[in-house]
Task: structure prediction
Amino acid sequence: MLGANVTQDTALRSWLALGAVCSTLLGWLIGVAIYYRMPMSIFARGLWFAAKATADVPALWAGPTCGLLVGTAVFVWVVRRYTTHFGGASFVTRLRGPRMVSQPILVAQTRKGKGQLCFAGIPIPHAVENTQFFVGGSTGTGKSVCVAGYIESVLARGDRLICIDPDGASMRHFHAPGDRILNPFDQRSQGWSIFNEIRTSYDCEQYAISMIPRSPSTEQETWNSMGRTIVSETLTVLVRQGQGTTERLVHWLTGAGNDELKTLLAGTPAAGCFHGATETLASIRTVLTQYITPHKYLPSGDFSFRDWLENGQGSLWITWREDMLQALKPLISCWVDVTCASVLSLHEERARRLHLVCDELDSLEKLNYIVDAATKGRKKGLCIMPGVQSLAQLNNIYGREDALTLRNCFRSVFLCGISELDTYTAEEFSRALGEHTVVRRAQGNGQGRAGTGRAAAGMRQDTERIVSPAEFHLLPNLTGYVKLAGNFPLARVQMRYKKRPVVVAPLVIADAFLQHPQASSLLFTAPAGT
Result:
């Protein structure tokens, strides 16, 4: 009898091993019966003779060999198909909570034909596509492999893609003619300005939030809020004056003196920001410099996220090289947030499929519109899949409550291995996969009528985590847990790395930055006056 603490997978293998032994023995018995053709009356007595003769009679080896091969084949097939990797002790039955099945079983339940998205190697039912996806795990555990597989399935069926792509890791394999690239340091980049998105007066206020994000710190948010007011009113004034260019915007918000900017914004709601202590205005100007300065790198052009979403074709790649991130982080975050805000202006069309893949979401600034895009964008056909390394880092960027609200938007998850030192993320991942209540056999010692010990068996209910935090620390690379939205079971899956050809260079440095790093073309040289 198997021990009470044996896992279900171990118990399954034990029974299968016993079955393989029985299959081998049965094969030998059949071989003996065929070779000796003994009548049933003496068959039992003849087995001893046959057993002693087996080593010297090669014809008797065929039966047990066939039995062993059949038993081994069944062992391997059943283990591969039904091993769940559930780490808890075996149980009699599950009363409540999510189920845990093997990867092949989950694939069999979710495969519904051709044209399905692929998430961590699992085909996604069409009803689950707009429930939003989440990929979490430490560096090198398999997030990028999951992202690449998802992108490949998106492009294979002709859906449109917006990919926030560090180091061009995905673009180098999936870029196609007609795709657009955004990276001010890349020669192939589209020219963009925030003014390209402005169609009505309230757009200035809407996109000012994307340019200067909200801060989880109450004190810092005070300065950010005033900075947004100044940005919004500056956008409005420049549009009215016919000076709606990035060069003029950067000049006024980072280069112009306080008195000049005060004069420009006189009579607007932003005028009040210039009354008060000098230190207050200095804090506001610091915020403006931090978030507006990266816009100076932008090449001029007429690319518009709103126009591309409404009428464009192909995919959009927002890329950077890691040494560029600190210089471009506010700008990249602005682009992603403008995309989320622009999606909300699209007309409702559930048949549309637009995918926003944002690897390393926790490397960007706070995105103010991503929660609205994840919840309300579903009606517009938007599917979002962010990658996150650490939930603690997400809390630091968004604040604990806002980070929890953001996580609540993603109902289908793939959770990979976590560093041993990041116990918080491992604990949260374990809680996210849920608990189940199961019935197990409980054994004890009782006294029989004759005073001798006898086993007394009963049943007990246990409520426990399906996956413990420690199991996330022990996961091999390219391995993780998939839980799809709805009543689909949980499964531990193992992905395979797929080598793909490089079709385009991940970065082609623009000539101005490559040849003349100190040239005036890198910085705006607008005159101080208007």
User: Anything to note?
Assistant: The chain is about 45% helix and 15% strand. Residues 8-83 form one domain.
